[in-house]
Specification:
The chain has 754 residues and is mainly alpha-helical. Helices cover 78% and strands 0% of the residues.
């Protein structure tokens, strides 16, 4: 059964498709020599429905002002009417001779023609409806761009509101009409973003006008804020317009195997060729209709094929797509200007038609080659690459089109990318591991090329390489967990500091220097978070393209928003008593906070919870040593900083562990995790209270003992949180537990007695 991209088309065409299926079954059943039953009653009913549909189509065409609909609707009406007449003719032939072979063929052709013609007719009408929404979107897009020169805020909002409301209603209604969930979600996502950006746009224009009236102080930052908001809203509206024009669902290609994607794209090209050819051979066909859309879709599918097939096919297809795109753009421009019948346009359409047929042949050959010889493409995820690499190492004599080699190269490249964000011994260890894998791989490759791939030396290298690859994968996972702990320890803490600095009283000393210092910390921390999020998205093991894309997109949004928050804070610093400046900063910082919270959740989901807790535990132990040293040195500032870091990391452990409990349906697991996190929360509070007491009086021995006691309990409670998350393995396979050295109180650590 064919799939349709809107519920209306589906509701109309699904019964027609079922009737066609019935006729095909009857036809096949009668091929053994049986007589065809009398279908004249059914066919008369179908013909009456078709005539009504044709009448509605003609009335719509006559009343419409859409030039493309007026161009595309008549051929669709002719096609469906001709098919209906064919059915009537078949009915007469089969009534006179139930065994008539020409009658049966005419029956099937007519039935399929009605299905195809009705689908084309409905698609023409549907695309006309889409163009109405596109025009409304374009109107809003054009208007928000004049915000750059808009000086009257009241007039701007008054004119923007009806257009924005109309667009939102039309897009929302269209989203509900779509059958493909991913398209609905994209429309809803970008529409929500537009709605959320409207207050920010109004605020940005208001603060721009305000800074001008205040003598220009902060104007440069206000303009940057305004231009950022306009870019953001424009992007979302353009994405809405892009998704509105989609009629096929290809969002799952990333998760499919290459051959499935190739065959799907090949079928799409075959199905679109007739419409594309009709458009090319009709010099009066308007641009932007279903014919041109079919041609553009063919080029998009051909590009997908090029991305997945072997050379030399990949390069040839990409070049053909580039050439055809350029020629099609020229032809569309000529027809848009009423020059479709000029010699240049006719020559172009002929050339495109020839090149299009050649492209289809090239795609067919490329797919056939891929089916026969494989695609030679590494997997998308590290886990997939590891499987491909290990498969090649197990039997390097098998021709895998270089997949195993490329997988190893990809793992090394990912390891080096992750190492770029590390420092100290951890960075050196990961880089050395990457170098070891690369060196062993090159040694093995050299032996294979010499025909010595099964020699004792090669076998020894293969064993070493397999072991090193596993170590590399584990090291990457651990490094990512450590990065997440460090980068997302306190996701919105630097923002809170920036907020306080921006809102400092006008007479506060060193306001400017303090703000610049906090802004530097904020910018650095935000970059650290987004870099880590990208690393987790690219080097993580998630096989879902949608989730990976969401992590990258959210990280990009945070990165783009970060300097605008700083700009808004600068304006507030310059205009401390200005309500518009305060409102602008609060709206921007609020949206930044929301995005960071979303990003934190997405990154947490991508990180193994047990690895995260282990990495947090190691970091807390280091902080605990730091606090112990600060107690010995009677340094209250370091006690407070270290104690705060311990509490923040412990709270993140609680959050991550509770998320695992929320996602579990095992009541015993849920209870164990929740009990452990409640206890960890209590010991965290006790540790913070003790650290504050010491900072107020570093010589207080009782407070010191309380801190060491509560800190020791905190570390025990982390162990308790880890316990339900550990996968139980047989005792004989377990490594001996590490020996942990507890943080000793002052008298046991030979600290100076106070």
């Amino acid at each position: 059964m064919p799939s349709f991209h809107t519920k209306t088309i589906e509701q109309i065409l699904d019964p027609v498709a079922q009737q066609v299926s019935v006729l095909v079954v009857l036809h096949e059943a009668s091929e053994d020599g049986s007589a065809m039953p009398d279908l004249s009653g059914q066919i008369s009913a179908v013909n009456a429905a078709v005539q009504n549909l044709v009448k509605v189509g003609r009335d719509t065409t006559n009343s419409s002002k859409d030039a493309v609909l007026k161009q595309d609707m008549p051929p669709a009406l002719v096609k469906v009417e001709a098919a209906s007449n064919g059915l009537l003719e078949a009915s007469v032939m089969l009534r006179d001779d139930p065994y008539s072979m020409p009658g049966r063929k005419t029956l099937i052709d007519g039935a399929r023609g009605i299905l195809g013609g009705t689908a084309q007719l409905l698609l023409v009408f549907d695309q006309a409806e889409v163009r109405k929404i596109l025009r409304r979107c374009q109107g809003v897009l054009d208007y928000i761009c004049v915000a750059e020169v808009m000086g009257d805020l009241v007039t701007f909002v008054k004119n923007l509101t009806p257009g924005m409301t109309g667009m939102a209603n039309m897009v929302s209604a269209r989203a509900k009409e779509l059958t493909f969930q991913v398209h609905r979600e994209l429309l809803e996502k970008h529409l929500d973003s537009v709605k959320n950006t409207v207050p920010l746009l109004v605020s940005a224009i208001k603060i721009t006008v305000t800074t001008i009236s205040q003598g220009g102080q902060g104007l440069a930052e206000a303009k940057e804020n305004r231009n950022y908001v306009i870019r953001k809203m424009s992007y979302d509206i353009r994405e809405i317009m892009r998704v509105l024009q989609l009629t096929t669902y290809d969002e799952d290609d990333w998760a499919m195997d290459d051959l499935t994607v190739l065959k799907k794209a090949q079928d799409n090209i075959t199905n679109q060729m007739a419409r594309a050819t009709e458009w090319l051979t009709d010099p009066n066909a308007a641009p932007g209709g279903i014919g041109e859309s079919a041609l553009r879709q063919i080029l998009a599918d051909a590009k997908k094929v090029a991305d997945r097939v072997n050379e030399p096919y990949a390069g040839r297809i990409k070049q053909a797509v580039e050439d055809l795109t350029e020629l099609t753009d020229k032809l569309a421009d000529l027809r848009a200007n009423g020059q479709g019948n000029t010699p240049e346009a006719l020559q172009l359409s002929h050339a495109i038609n020839a090149k299009l047929n050649a492209l289809q042949k090239l795609v067919d050959d490329a797919v056939q080659d891929a089916v026969k010889n494989g695609t030679g493409k590494p997997a998308n995820t590290p886990t997939g690459k590891m499987d491909q690499a290990q498969a090649w190492l197990a039997n390097p004599s098998v021709n895998d089109k270089g997949v195993g080699r490329k997988a190893i190269e990809g793992l090394v490249a990912e390891g080096r990318r992750v190492a770029q964000n590390l420092s100290g011994p951890e960075k050196r260890e990961l880089e050395q591991l990457c170098n070891d894998v690369d060196s062993l791989y090159k040694q093995l490759d050299a032996l294979i090329r010499k025909g010595q791939g099964n020699s004792p030396e090669a076998q020894a290298i293969r064993q070493q390489l397999a072991k090193k690859l596993q170590q590399l994968q584990q090291r990457i996972e651990k490094a990512l967990a450590n990065q997440v702990v460090d980068s997302f320890m306190d996701p919105t803490g630097p923002l809170a500091q920036l907020d306080r600095a921006a809102k400092a009283p006008a007479d506060a000393p060193n306001r400017q220097q303090t703000y610049e210092s906090k802004a530097h910390i904020f910018l650095k921390h935000s970059k650290q978070m987004t870099d880590t999020a990208h690393a987790v998205a690219e080097a993580g093991s998630c096989p879902d393209k949608k989730i990976v894309g969401e992590r990258n997109a959210t990280a990009n949004e945070v990165a783009e928003m970060t300097p605008q928050v700083v700009n808004a804070g600068k304006i507030l610093l310059m205009l401390p008593e200005n309500a518009a400046a305060t409102e602008n900063f609060d709206i921007l910082s609020g949206q930044y906070r929301s995005k960071v919270e979303i990003l934190t959740g997405l990154v947490d989901e991508a990180t193994d919870p047990l690895e995260f807790i282990k990495a947090s535990e190691e970091s807390i132990k280091k902080d605990s040593e730091g606090v112990a040293n600060a107690i010995r040195q009677k340094n209250p500032q370091n006690i407070i900083v270290g104690g705060g870091n311990i509490a923040t990391k412990a709270n993140r452990i609680v959050t991550v562990a509770n998320k695992e409990a929320d996602n579990s349906e095992d009541p015993e697991f849920v209870n164990n995790v929740q009990d452990a996190t409640r206890q960890l929360g209590k010991s965290t509070t006790d540790t913070v209270v003790a650290a504050k007491a010491i900072s107020m009086n570093p010589a207080d021995g009782t407070a010191q003992n309380n801190w060491f006691k509560s800190n020791g309990q905190l570390l025990k409670d982390i162990e308790r949180v880890k316990r339900p998350l550990i996968v139980i393995i047989p005792r004989e396979q377990q490594a001996p537990p590490p020996v942990d050295t507890p943080i000793a109180p002052p008298e046991q650590a030979n600290y100076e007695q106070v």
